[in-house]
Amino acid sequence: xxxxxxxxxxxxxxxxxxxxxxxxxxxxxxxxxxxxxxxxxxxxxxxxxxxxxxxxxxxxxxxxxxxxxxxxxxxxxxxxxxxxxxxxxxxxxxxxxxxxxxxxxxxxxxxxxxxxxxxxxxxxxxxxxxxxxxxxxxxxxxxxxxxxxxxxxxxxxxxxxxxxxxxxxxxxxxxxxxxxxxxxxxxxxxxxxxxxxxxxxxxxxxxxxxxxxxxxxxxxxxxxxxxxxxxxxxxxxxxxxxxxxxxxxxxxxxxxxxxxxxxxxxxxxxxxxxxxxxxxxxxxxxxxxxxxxxxxxxxxxxxxxxxxxxxxxxxxxxxxxxxxxxxxxxxxxxxxxxxxxxxxxxxxxxxxxxxxxxxxxxxxxxxxxxxxxxxxxxxxxxxxxxxxxxxxxxxxxxxxxxxxxxxxxxxxxxxxxxxxxxxxxxxxxxxxxxxxxxxxxxxxxxxxxxxxxxxxxxxxxxxxxxxxxxxxxxxxxxxxxxxxxxxxxxxxxxxxxxxxxxxxxxxxxxxxxxxxxxxxxxxxxxxxxxxxxxxxxxxxxxxxxxxxxxxxxxxxxxxxxxxxxxxxxxxxxxxxxxxxxxxxxxxxxxxxxxxxxxxxxxxxxxxxxxxxxxxxxxxxxxxxxxxxxxxxxxxxxxxxxxxxxxxxxxxxxxxxxxxxxxxxxxxxxxxxxxxxxxxxxxxxxxxxxxxxxxxxxxxxxxxxxxxxx
Length: 709
Description:
The protein is of the alpha/beta class. It has 27 helices and 20 strands. It folds into 5 domains: 7-49; 55-225, P-loop containing nucleotide triphosphate hydrolases (Rossmann fold, 3-Layer(aba) Sandwich), CATH 3.40.50; 233-371, Rossmann fold (3-Layer(aba) Sandwich), CATH 3.40.50.300; 422-554, Four Helix Bundle (Hemerythrin (Met), subunit A) (Up-down Bundle); 576-652 and 678-708, no CATH class. Helices cover 43% and strands 16% of the residues. It starts with 6 loop residues before the first helix and ends with a helix. Residues 212-386 form the Helicase C-terminal domain.
């Protein structure tokens, strides 16, 4: 027999009124359960707050904040700085005059900390406490505490340079020295001079060089808060292992056999995802990257295995080449990793390197991202502020990037029309700066809008914005796993990888975004979902200026598709004007066009097709130039010489002094820096200085190829 509240039984009796009553009753019970759960979580959160060290220093911190515009707070791991500092300011009334904004260098940290603070305050996430990350804003008019990535705050300052809706900005995890955080440090230094009476800046970190930051902000005070850590025993290896992967595995097994209960956190250069708490009577082995050093806390960890390495993306402005290198961590990172073992009880950290290596070879601090990244996006941002007193080459950075990196960024922006030959930001550049994309993709969208292929460009931009590898790797194993031969992915119609990405998304669109379709093709499901969301949000951003449809357009005729591909390739050529390459006359190698040409190869994963004579296209645009066993062009697409020639024409007009927005000569300083750079074998002779020679040389090579066919 059905229970009293069973809706099926009630429906059989024909009592419609009772159906409504029971549904309402069930909803009331559900709401009550949710409320009870939320109250329980809040009580747990409050209990865990009670012993946080930062609360014992509340009066000291607030005295420093009230008497100074800028305060540096060094809070060791477990001090509670990320969750409690905003709440302290809230209790002291700072949210009455504006928002307390807390920046995080990572998206996952901004979301998780905001969720935790909302639980502790007993409010709904998105109301009084919210977060804003790229492509997602969960705030409201009622939000008083806002966690956001440093990149989001930079974009907010474009429309509101004074940041006048904020009463306090907290730059958290500043020791990670992300590119955006370093830019923010320079901007905060300017802003506190203009808003000294109603604005506070707090810079917080676990291991930051507080004295250095204090000097940067005119000797501002430094408050140190101890962490809540149990003792951690450090165990060094006697020698460096031949394979840190095998050594990590052996150490993990040794811990499992000999040590007591507790999870094991292994720091490697790659990671696996961990879901939920461990089952009873079970030990978890968690493999993580450097994200677990500070941004994520994994409960239950008692043992840490530190390989001593991290995978780091680095950019060389002298070659325009990216490399993903496995490098040694710094002493600061080693300290952070060890601290993960002492969060809940005494623990052990097994370092897979001798103590002498730690003392003699490890850098004291991590190299700031600003000194190993392309600065085109950051320079575009600074230019878009349109402040007459900013000379890009003399901007006040905590640690200055090399002049060569800044010059490289200025040249890139000039070639894609973001700034003019006098260094002034253009109308196109201002629009580009508002888009949450790197400059080349933003410029591609602008050009596509003029050529009637914005819909296709939005799809490609979204696919290229994925934060993971979408396509399956090409190997014998993956070929065997595929269900059927006919499930081969689209091939880009011979034009290259950008067209293939477009075709893949359009195929998925035709299945009504069926997840099983992605699985059949071995596409990364979570990544494809992210792409779909990014495309939707980019469409909303572009809606105001769009000259054509934004929805996915499926061309039914071959001729229409080819015209779309033609227009899209032209837009890509304009957007990636600084990333063009020309095929060599006698083989399928390429020579990059630009300031420091070099001979490269197309990456083996590319779908770019040769013609009937085995020759690849004469000119290509590439997404990135990477260094592995040799320099490779990755994600390439064929372009026409007619589109390339005007770009070569612009190269001759560059005057770096004008582009920077400043005055004075920098050539001597630049030459001095460049003379110290290591010589590389793969750099070929520079493009001739004479502009006509460049154009003529390109035409002659083009005609030479035609003659060989």
